[in-house]
Write a structure and sequence with these properties.
The structure is a single chain. This protein has helices at residues 8-26, 33-42, 47-78, 84-101, 108-120, 128-152, 157-163; strands spanning 6-7, 165-166. Helix content is 66%, strand content 2%. It starts with 5 loop residues before the first strand and ends in a 22-residue tail after the last strand. 40% of the residues are buried. It is mainly alpha-helical and 188 residues long. The protein has 7 helices and 2 strands. It has a two-stranded parallel ribbon with strand order 1-2. The longest helix is centred in the first third of the chain and has 32 residues, at 47-78.
């Protein structure tokens, strides 16, 4: 039976998720979900792509967090929880347009994810502002971990051969060729 070869981006993505989970466990932090999502979304083929897109995604995280905090402020101040079902989709439209108009197309997904998590989570015990700051921080941690893993994690070729790890594969993990010179062996 031939198994598909696992690409470096796949390994680096799963390592990033592991490190997010480990860090949150060591810090006794409540939930690593946002960090793990950000790590998965942020991992790219090269460190240059990861850094550029990671920077955009941190900006998107902040935009989504500010928008979510603003809506939570309105809801908590004026008590319009019953119309939240209409406000959330309108906010998504607005956030997509903001990101696109600012040239931050790579940040649309994470911006909307942060916004949706903030507004659909029922747990705002510590207050909406602190909750928002924590979700922005969690997401940013995941992005930074993915960037660091992408930059510094390299598996020696001898081990790659033994494990049948490909140097380059497409996003489904199927081998497709040789890596380029700029450490671009990071593919799912």
């Amino acid at each position: 039976m031939n198994f598909p070869r696992i690409g470096m981006r796949n390994i680096k993505t799963s390592t990033s998720v592991f490190l997010c989970l480990l860090l949150f466990e060591l810090l006794d932090r409540e939930n690593a979900l946002m960090a793990c999502i950000a790590a998965v979304i942020c991992m790219q083929n090269t460190i240059v792509d990861s850094f550029r897109k990671g920077t955009e995604r941190i900006i998107g995280t902040i935009i989504g967090g500010i928008a979510g905090a603003f809506v939570l402020f309105l809801i908590s101040t004026f008590g319009y929880e019953n119309i939240l079902i209409f406000i959330i989709p309108i906010g998504v439209i607005i956030l997509i347009e903001i990101c696109v108009s600012l040239g931050l197309k790579n940040s649309v997904v994470i911006c909307c994810v942060v916004y949706l998590v903030l507004l659909t989570s029922a747990n705002h015990v510590e207050g909406y502002l602190l909750y928002t700051i924590n979700r922005i921080l969690d997401t940013s941690v995941g992005i930074v971990i993915a960037l660091l893993v992408n930059k510094y994690m390299n598996i020696p070729d001898s081990i790659k051969r033994k494990l049948k790890i490909s140097k380059e594969s497409d996003e489904d993990g199927v081998t497709k060729g040789e890596p380029d010179e700029n450490n671009s062996d990071e593919i799912n």
